[in-house]
Structure formats: C-alpha cells, structure tokens
Amino acid sequence: MAYNVVTLGGDGIGPEVMAQGVRVLEAVSKPLGIEWNIEDIPCGGKFYLEHGSRDWPEGSEEKCKAADMILLGAVGWPDPNTKGPVTMKNGKMAGYSAVIGNRTKLDLFANVRPVKLYEGVQHRVHGKHKQVWSPGQVDMVIVRENTEGLYAGMGGKLSPGGTTEVATDVRVITRRGSEQVIRHSFELCKRRNKGAPRDGKLRVTAIVKDNVLHGDHLFRDLFFEIGEEYPEIEKETAIVDAYTQWLVSEPERYDVCVATNMFGDIVTDLASVLQGGMGMAASANVGTKHGMFEPIHGSSPGDTGKDRLNPIATVISVKEGLDWLAGQKGDDTLAKAADAIDQAVVELLKKGAPLTVDLVGADKAAKCSEVGAALAELAVSKLD
Ligand SMILES: NC(=O)c1ccc[n+]([C@@H]2O[C@H](COP(=O)([O-])OP(=O)(O)OC[C@H]3O[C@@H](n4cnc5c(N)ncnc54)[C@H](O)[C@@H]3O)[C@@H](O)[C@H]2O)c1
C-alpha cells in the first residue's frame, strides 16, 4: 500500500530544499519497500502574483486533508512595491493558505521544534565558524502553540481617506488551544524520557509573559493545573524576555519548553543559533489526525535558484514526519526509515563534508543538492 504525501515546496529556496528532502525520503524507502504517491502542489507569493486571486490552486485544501503526511518548504516572496512579502487582497501574506491555513484548518495545534546540537556542527559568529555551545548540552524541544495567539488573524486596519492610521492584532488565547499544547508537551516530555542535559530531570518550562498579559495568566494557570497530572515532571515558568538570555547562556537547563504562538516563533529562531543556524532547525506541525513537517526557516528569496543553502532542516523534518506517520499507522518500517535518516545526518555532520556554506563557510561549501545526495546515500547504507 502506498502512502499519500503532499509536498508544498513554496517560494524561494523552498522547492530546492524540498527536492533534497524528497530525494532522501525516496532513497531510504525503496530498499524497505515503502511506497509513496507524492503530489506536489504549487503555492506561495510567486504563485499568487502569477495567478492573481489565490495562493494555491483550487482543491488544495482537500488534497492536504486527504494526505497521510504533508511536507512544506517555505513560502513568502518579496512584493516589488512594498518590499515586504506579497500580500493578498484579504490582507494575508500570499502563502498563508499552505502554512497558517493548514495549521488552523487541520487543527495542527502543536508545532514541535527539536533544538539539538549535533556533534561536528560549528557556530557561525562574527562571520567565522567555531564551537561555542557543546553537543550534549543542547538537546531540548520547544513546543509552540500553532493555531491562535497573535496569529489568529483577528484585527485590522483603519484607513480613513485611504491613509492607514490604526492597525490592530488581537492576541487570542483559549482554554482549549492552551490545554491541547500544554498536555502535548507533558506527554512529549514523558515519552522522550531524557530530561535536561544539566541534571537529567524531566522538566517542562512554560515560556510566558505572566507579569503583563492576561492570556499568559490563563496559559500559566492551565500549565500548573495540567502539570498536576504529571508528578514525575518538574514544572517551571520563565518570563519570555529573561528566557531568551538563559536559552543561550545555559541551554542545558531545558528539556521541553512550551510557549504561545508568537513567543514560540521568536524563541525558536534564536534557539536555531545553538543548533548551527536556520538550516539545521526542523519542525513538526501535529494535531490528532494530521501532520505537516517543515524546516522552521523561510524562503530566503535572495538565495533562490543558487543551490547553496542547507537542506538538513528539511531532511530532519522528513525524518520527523516518518516517525509521526509510523506512530499513526503502526508501521515500524517507517520508523526504520526515520532512524536511518537520523543516523545519516549524525554521520555526515561528524564527517564534516559535504556541507553547505552556513556550516563550513564559502571556501569549503558544497551545494544543497550535494548534501542531499550524500544524505540519501548514507541513509541507505544505514539500512544494512
Ligand atoms: N514557514 C514559512 O514558510 C516561513 C517562515 C519564516 C519566514 N517566511 C517567509 O520567508 C521570507 C523570508 O523571510 P526571512 O528572511 O525573515 O527569513 P528566512 O528564514 O528566509 O531567512 C533568515 C536567515 O536564515 C537563513 N536561512 C534560511 N534558510 C536557510 C537554510 N536552509 N540554510 C541556511 N541558512 C538559511 C537566510 O539566509 C537568512 O540569513 C518572508 O517572506 C517570510 O514571510 C516563511
């Protein structure tokens, strides 16, 4: 039986990193006898500019809903007039349907973002690569609420006489949305059963702004209420601004962290620096029935078509997708494929080549497609 996958390459470097993700997926699946029906759906800002009224074709929502797994590259294309991302007539970013649309319509309430530093990865600081944080000391998961908060799409602009004078965005925090993601985080902490690198303690940290925001009073209270069901897990809150400096100065303190939508979005980009940058940071958007897997980075439009940026975040996202699907379908073969990809990533990074510019600098840089090819070959070798 073949599994149905929808790929949403999107804009900019999205299709390039997606091609490598699919290459690794297909390579590792073949020897295991896993079959995929892959349907690629165009989407994003460029699609909107070319088609005028939609940011993906009619019927795409239904195809995503019917898929066993969705893989996403990145969306967002610069508007030649505003210099910001292309925006649709309804005020939403073109590409919204594929990313935020899927997250909300498919109730992908948890955006799970592993923050792990692999051995061999150097950090780029002041334009040079050196080891700043230590592998083994950075191994946490940040879970971001994915369907509401500041991205709920509530708000608008007041433009008397055509000049925008007022713009509002309403932050929506609900009991249901918070409970779902908080419970997911405690369950993940239990399942992971690793604890924080510093002391091995199972710990969930709620990232909040409960000194100021009403929504965070609710989020915090629900966090401790649900936390009572998990006596074996240590619970703590961290105020988001202070959290950012602990995140980089003592990442070993964290095991699983949970945050509302925008805080989670911002802190995970910061956390990607611990991992070696945006090219290393993967994510899983999951609910109870559906799953969409994507690198956390955007479309990096200036790098389009250069075959130069890092596909590893996408490849790790594919691995996350396989692990999730293995659980959904009770299919251990998918878990084997995921494990082989994980081993391939570990080995390639340890070996140190071929890797892209973000990890090794321009002098030693390999192409995005060369990294994909190397990972595909290594993953297959791990099946022996
Ligand atoms: N989920 C998504 O589709 C998503 C997420 C974030 C941003 N965006 C969109 O992407 C566009 C560009 O946004 P941005 O510049 O703020 O963010 P970006 O993630 O595209 O780029 C930020 C930085 O990360 C680097 N980077 C990105 N991907 C990389 C990779 N695979 N390997 C190595 N380095 C990588 C870029 O070169 C840049 O320096 C915007 O239109 C934005 O709306 C989309």
What does this structure look like?
This protein has 384 residues and is of the alpha/beta class. It is 40% helix and 20% strand. The chain has two domains: 1-108 and 287-384, Isopropylmalate Dehydrogenase, CATH 3.40.718.10; 127-276, 3-Layer(aba) Sandwich (Isopropylmalate Dehydrogenase). It has a ten-stranded mixed β-sheet with strand order 2-1-3-14-13-4-7-12-10-11, sandwiched between helices. A two-stranded antiparallel sheet has the order 5-6. Helix 6 (214-227) links the parallel strand 10 (203-208) and strand 11. Helix 1 crosses helix 9 (312-329), helix 1 (14-32) packs across helix 10 (332-351) and helix 10 (332-351) crosses helix 12 (368-381). The radius of gyration is 20 Å and the shape is globular. The two termini are 23 Å apart. Nicotinamide-adenine-dinucleotide is lined by residues 17, 74-76, 85, 93, 99, 277-279, 294, 297-300, 303, 309-310, 313, 358.
Number of strands: 14
Sheet having the most strands: 10 strands, mixed
| Associated small molecules | nicotinamide-adenine-dinucleotide
Terminal-residue CA separation: 23 Å
Q: State the CATH superfamily name of the largest domain.
A: Isopropylmalate Dehydrogenase
Which second-level CATH architecture of the largest domain applies? 3-Layer(aba) Sandwich
Shape: globular
Helix content percent band: 40-55%
The radius of gyration computed from the alpha-carbon positions, rounded to a whole number of angstroms, is 20 Å
